[in-house]
Amino acid sequence: MKVRNDFIPKTLQDFLVTTFVSIIIPIVYWFEIFEVLPTFYNQWHGWYNFHFILGTFILFNITTNFIGVILIDTSIRGLMLPSKPEKNWRFCAVCECVAPPRSWHCNICKTCILKRDHHCIFTGCCIGHNNFRYFFMFVIYIFAATLYASYYNIFYIYNSVELGSYMSILKLVFPLAMIFVEYTMNQLFLFLVLIVTVGCVFTGVLFYFHTNLMINGMITYERKFKDRFYDTGTLNNLAICLGERWYLTWISPFVQSNLTHDGVNWVAQDTNKSK
What we know:
- By secondary structure, the protein is mostly helical.
- It has one domain.
- The chain has helices at 12-36, 46-71, 132-160, 166-173, 175-179, 185-215, 234-242; strands at 90-92, 97-99, 104-106, 111-113, 118-120, 125-127.
- Strands 1-2 form a two-stranded antiparallel ribbon.
- Strand 3 and strand 4 (111-113) form a beta hairpin.
């Protein structure tokens, strides 16, 4: 895999969101492990140790896959491409080169991306053929982590927040705004609970959306077409996206799983309908 030389986010929006994600992940981990869990279990005993190990394993996969998304180069840079467009290929006037099928130019990344799915504001880069595995696992583990944490957060909030007044309800519903009214650690904790809840819903939707695309051999742009041009069957689609050892990629991003497609030479099932 090629490593990107220009992995710094290109826009202020990308930079701010990516920085926020980088900061909030370890903060939420600290909150869940060292603030929430001790209210349920004796620290460094029995079940606490089990949840600590499991939570740390999840954090490891979140951070390493996050880094993998950002560092892996999924552009057409450095590829040996034909000088003249072949069937279903096209000429990119910006890159001044021929681009393979399913590759599209990103105005933010300023290059054509192999099997471009979308530009991800949370990582500050495009998601394409070479880094989709890391993006998908990042989404899975964020969803698993937030769902896991939300279960305990419900009981944590129930036991720590009094709901007998309008002010207490406002603190629960608008935790970020209320920080500026009454800055306390409890109010900050409520804000973190809200972040976890929103993250759970958002990544749950992403997980469903991209799983559906992947098993049907599609990218986001192609879902508006009724025909699945590049669908080769569920198992083959998984291997194209996650590699030949797709069933082991959940363990760690360091598990070797070579992609079964080069991301360049795509043949549509019906060339009359292909892009």
